[in-house]
Design brief:
heterodimer; A: alpha/beta; 10 helices; 12 strands; B: alpha/beta; 5 helices; 5 strands; 17% strand
């Protein structure tokens, strides 16, 4: 902070405003004052002060309301409240709502100086941390692209050799080595999937997908995936189907590729963790301004103890007999991050032995005709 | 063995990938000209006039696979080999999002004639090659 810090004092008593201003001015601060909450907030918006000192007890808008509004506008602005009769309750409430400190009346110039100096120091540190965080993010951005290329290239070369060996193009192979090479290839594919998932997560964490939102008809996404997953569901003896496919487009504002990934991950799980002869049903509807997509399966279900964690990275429900947990343990974490990046939410409900329902809610696209 | 034998230029900066792909193509009786980058590829394309080009996207230099493909499809210098089919072979598409919409060139770049993901399935690759040679 090269400039002198800007401090806004909001108090209905003129004498209080003046004395605060005098003390702060001597500390080397720039000071603005406001006699009530409304004009104070206007100043906050226009001047973006570093710190706000606000009297809790004012006619009109209360100090707590001002506090909330300031924090809502910019939580980095440090706030100090002045409490009239040193009521601990009011001070505690203010601190709970994010005030940095409080000044019980009457206070000495030293007290206000001390508290404000600390408050400004805190803000300085917070801003510095924020700047470092941003710098790190920028660095990570490049690292991800680089890492992605460098990790994948050697794996692709190995996979390519294995393909050639398996096809017998480098000479015929006995059954045993051939089987081992096939297994090695599968493990490599698994590793590649893990790396891809991890890179996806890293990219979503950077907010990289929110840039390219456009109207997407959820029905066409589901149509495509039902077709894409048909061989997998046939292999598992599972019926994967729409229930009451809407006749009109159901449009959200989203990134189509990412949304495909969300529903691929959910549908894939629903098929793979199902019973032979089971069903996976997809329902799409609208609910309070949201598009709601429900995927229900008749699978083995998820125990209540696991439910709170299934969206966590690398969390995998250990499966008993025969049921083998495949995949990276990142699929649902990715789905959740993508849905949340779209301003939506994902929920799960499950009855062990009966099945699981995943519900994705995405904000409905505004009523501009889905121009595509 | 395929019915026809072709000369195929493989442009890729990964020597192991070139070697593996060469084994696939040679197993079907094709002749392979390897090139380790766009510059070498450009020279060999003009000098040897192959029947088909396998091109990696190799984005580490400004003159990358995209640029070479675009140049072949548009630049005067490549007029004599303009019709040579170009097959992109890359692992890039699914991670970075392709810079071309397939069939139409976007961002002012000409699209290749076809695209294969790395690692390529030997049968897929040979099948594509056959189809281009039949044209």
């Amino acid at each position: 902070m090269a400039d002198a810090p800007l401090v806004l004092v909001i108090d209905d008593e003129e004498s209080m405003r003046d004395s605060c201003a005098q003390i702060l001015d001597k500390m080397g601060c720039r000071v603005e004052t406001a006699p009530d909450g409304e004009s104070g907030l206007r100043r906050v918006r226009e001047g973006r002060p570093d710190a706000v000192i606000v009297d809790l007890k004012m006619p009109g808008m209360s100090g707590l309301e001002v506090l909330d509004a300031v924090r809502g506008f910019d939580p980095q602005i440090v706030t100090v409240v002045i409490t009239g009769y040193a009521t601990v309750d009011a001070a505690v409430e203010a601190m709970k709502r994010g005030a940095y400190d409080f000044l019980p009346k009457p206070f000495t110039p030293d007290e206000i100086r001390l508290i404000l100096a600390r408050a400004l120091e805190r803000r300085h540190l917070a801003l510095e941390a924020e700047r470092l965080r941003r710098e790190k993010k920028l660095l990570e951005d490049n690292v991800i692209t680089m890492v992605s290329h460098q990790l994948r290239s050697p794996l692709v070369a190995i996979q390519q050799y294995l393909e050639v060996l398996l096809a017998g193009m480098a000479g015929g192979l006995e059954d045993r080595p051939k089987e081992m090479i096939r297994r090695a290839g599968e493990r490599l594919t698994g590793l590649m999937g893990l790396i891809n998932d991890w890179l996806d997560l890293a990219r979503i964490d950077q907010g990289g997908l929110v840039r390219k939102l456009k109207p997407v008809d959820v029905r066409t996404v589901i149509d495509k995936l039902l077709e894409f997953l048909a061989p997998l569901s046939a292999e598992h003896g599972v019926v994967l189907a729409w229930v009451d496919r809407p006749e009109q487009p159901v449009t959200v504002l989203g990134d189509e590729g990412s949304l495909e990934q969300v529903f691929t991950n959910i549908l894939h799980n629903a098929v793979v963790y199902n019973k032979a002869g089971g069903r996976v049903e997809v329902r799409v509807g609208e609910e309070e301004g949201n598009v709601k997509v429900e995927v229900s399966d008749t699978g083995i279900g998820i125990d209540a103890e696991h439910l709170p964690f299934i969206f966590d990275q690398f969390y995998r429900v250990s499966r008993g007999e025969g049921g083998k947990a495949k995949g990276s343990g990142l699929g649902l974490a990715i789905a959740k991050k993508i849905v949340e990046a779209h301003g939506g939410r994902i929920d799960v409900a499950s009855v062990p032995g009966e099945g699981t329902v995943f519900t994705v809610r995405l904000p409905k696209a505004a009523l501009e005709k889905a121009a595509r | 063995m395929s019915a026809t034998s072709a000369t195929i230029l493989v442009i890729d900066d990964d020597p192991d990938f070139r070697r593996a792909v060469t084994a696939i193509l040679e197993s079907a009786g094709h002749r392979v000209i390897p090139a380790s980058g766009p510059e070498e590829g450009k020279a060999k394309l003009l000098a040897e006039r192959p029947d088909l080009v396998l091109l990696d996207i190799m984005m580490d230099s400004l003159f990358d696979g995209y640029a070479l493909c675009h140049a072949v499809k548009t630049a005067k210098e490549f007029e004599s080999v303009r019709k040579t089919p170009i097959l992109f072979v890359s692992a890039v598409k699914d991670i970075a999002g392709a810079r071309f919409g397939f069939g139409e060139g976007t961002e002012g770049l000409s699209a290749p004639d076809d695209y294969l993901d790395k690692p390529v399935k030997p049968a897929d690759l040979l099948d594509r090659v056959e189809r281009f040679l039949a044209k």
